[in-house]
Amino acid sequence: MGVDVRDYIQSRIEGLTEDSQEFYSQVPGQANDFDTWSALKLILHSATVNMYTTVLAQNDYYDDLYYIDALAGSGVSQYNDENRCFLGSPLIAAKDATVPFKKMYFVEKDPDHAEALERRLEYAFNQKSDKYAEPEQWEVIPRDANKAIPDIISGMWRSFRNNDNGLNYLCFIDNQGMNVKWPAIEELTPKPYGDLLINLPTSQAIGRNVGTYPETVGEFYGRDLSTVDIPDTGMREFMRDLYLEQLEDRNRPVQVNTRVEADVGSYYYDMIYATRDIKAGNGYEETIKYVRDFIEQVHSGDVDRILDVLDGSQSSLSSYLPDDDEGISEELAEESSDEDSGQTALGEFQ
Fold it and tell me: Which of 28, 46, 285, 319 has its CA 20 to 30 A from that of 331?
């Protein structure tokens, strides 16, 4: 039986605030700032984690699934001066995973936020209920993501070689600036196999700096931008497409780009989901596209409307949902039948 896609998105929205005040109280005073557009990326993140674990858990080739949160934060965010709390991506990932990951890596450079996150995760995983899926192992890493990611990948490879199991990962990179630079992306791709969800700060960090500091932006892109003819008109779209091309060159050609606007007509950032191309598809690309269409109809600059959605107002949610969801509900319930195993083979370790 199919799953109602409207109910599916509704549950993603309601989950942003669930238990958040309780988690905040574990380490009062330690929280990230939450802006209205943060809600939109977390809805997409929630859906991606949920669908990724649903589909890959049904694939016998993947015994070991990993989650990497490269810029994990404190686990909780606060909105403006209202003391309203929202769950961060680490807790959302643990809550919305349909099966436990083998290991979850949480990288957070700020030591106070890293400590707060560790305490909140311990609280989540020590609850009697199974609301938060505790992985076999988890680790909070208080380091710069650019230095931590190579070590994480090395550890995954070592575990893979010792256990001879299929390996796949989901990595969330929530760039606020040009945080995770291209060498780290190269560590993640083309192997081991895995999916990326990347916040690309198209307007802010990239758009404002590409003309003034091309070397810095070039390091983020892994390109010498002095050899690239960057147009004045349509520059943001051009830089987005250039990043997508870079990902395609790293065997992540299947891409769903979600454009998130801070206000009507304002271009703020792109959320890029990228994976490799396999014969029968990955089993949830169309669902992510549907969530994208929902997000692109909501403008985060309209605070009242966003908060209505976050409050779980069915009427306001319905007004934003795309009209055509035919086939998406069925896809939510379908099992993966991929003929291409897509697993990382032991012989491919280099």
Answer: 319
Ranges assigned E (strand) in the chain? 32-34, 64-69, 76-79, 84-87, 103-107, 137-141, 167-173, 194-200, 254-260, 269-275
Measure the CA dihedral 304/197/57/136, to 10°: -90
Would you state the pLDDT for residue 308? 66
Radius of gyration of the chain, Cα coordinates, nearest whole angstrom: 19
CA-to-CA dists, residue 343 to 49, 106, 335, angstroms: 19, 24, 17
- Cα(315)–Cα(320) distance, integer angstroms: 9
Digit-coded pLDDT (tens) for 59-101: 877 888 999 999 999 999 998 766 789 999 999 999 999 999 9
Percentage of the chain beyond pLDDT 90 is 59
Q: Between 294 and 176, name the one with better pLDDT.
A: 176
Number of C-beta neighbours around residue 15 at 10 A: 20
Cα end-to-end span (Å), the chain: 43
Taking the model in full, what pTM does it have?
0.90
What's the CATH code, domain 5-340? 3.40.50
pLDDT digits (tens, 9 = 90+) for 319-341: 666 665 555 555 555 544 444 45
| 170 closest CA partner among 156, 159, 158, 181 | 156
Q: Measuring CA to CA, which residue among 61, 17, 66, 315 is closest to residue 188?
A: 66
What 3-state DSSP class applies to 257?
strand
256 in Cβ contact with 292 (< 8 Å): yes
- Identify whether the C-beta of residue 85 lies closer than 8 Å to the C-beta of residue 20: yes
Query: How far is residue 16 CA from its own chain's centroid?
Result: 14
